[in-house]
Amino acid sequence: MSRVALVTGGTRGIGEAISLRLKEEGYKVAASYVSRDEDAQKFMKKTGVHVYKFDVAIFDQCSEKIKEIEKDLGPVEILINNAGVTRDGMLHKMDVRQWGDVIRTNLDSCFNMSKCVIDSMREKGFGRIINISSVNGQAGQAGQTNYSATKAGMIGFTKSLALETANKGITVNCVAPGYIDTEMVQAVPKEILDKIVKSKIPLGRLGKPEEIAEAVLYLIKDESGFITGTTLNVNGGQYNVP
Ligand code: CAA
Asked: Of these four, 41, 162, 175, 240, which has the most CB atoms within 10 Å of its CB?
């Protein structure tokens, strides 16, 4: 039996690695994306992962597209809330839009997406929800009050939803990546990034997207059904550095 998994932001970066790893493992995978149509179509042709265009920050779009996914592939049994953006800036220079864009895409999306799949998971008596948080939601990061607030928020969301769904065979967990070699991290000015890697990451390197995908795969397995409400850190030891 191949389960249906939906990965938001699943055509690029960490999301791409998750989509590919799950597909390789035999899951039926749908990946959402919001822009770059041409790249998404190429990705679908190359990988066989189904792609769907919608904005995870907008509830009605999520609801409509999840219905389409369920018609194409079957009920979503595994949801990976991965889509996220940064709009870095010190709070004294941050505008309302930088704040709101990040809150809506990173955190409202967890509500929107989970809300749209939770009824069918409850009926089925099985579900896996993984929220991709961040070390910066745990440790904080100058320039990221918006992003850190969403990533810490996802951890609270996860713990509460895990309690609500435990008696229905649904587990809800976070994976908290550290600095992973993706476009998002490469957008940090090189001298700042080099300093972070040198001073904050004991393993002395950026992580690979595939290393996050492996952690996600572990948590979604049927055999991992006793793990819920927790956060799996994949950060090269970063959080342990004072
Ligand atoms: N801690 C404390 N203070 C800092 C600081 C830090 N790390 N970095 C800069 N400052 C201070 C500066 O000393 C300066 O102080 P004064 O005004 O008193 O002189 C002030 O903050 C402003 O500094 P800048 O002029 O350099 O600020 P800027 O506006 O040009 O840039 C920034 C600020 C955009 C936040 C830049 O520092 C930056 O990009 N930092 C990296 C942020 C980061 O790590 N983002 C992670 C992105 S990847 C990701 O998010 C994925 C994930 O999950 C891990």
From this structure: 175
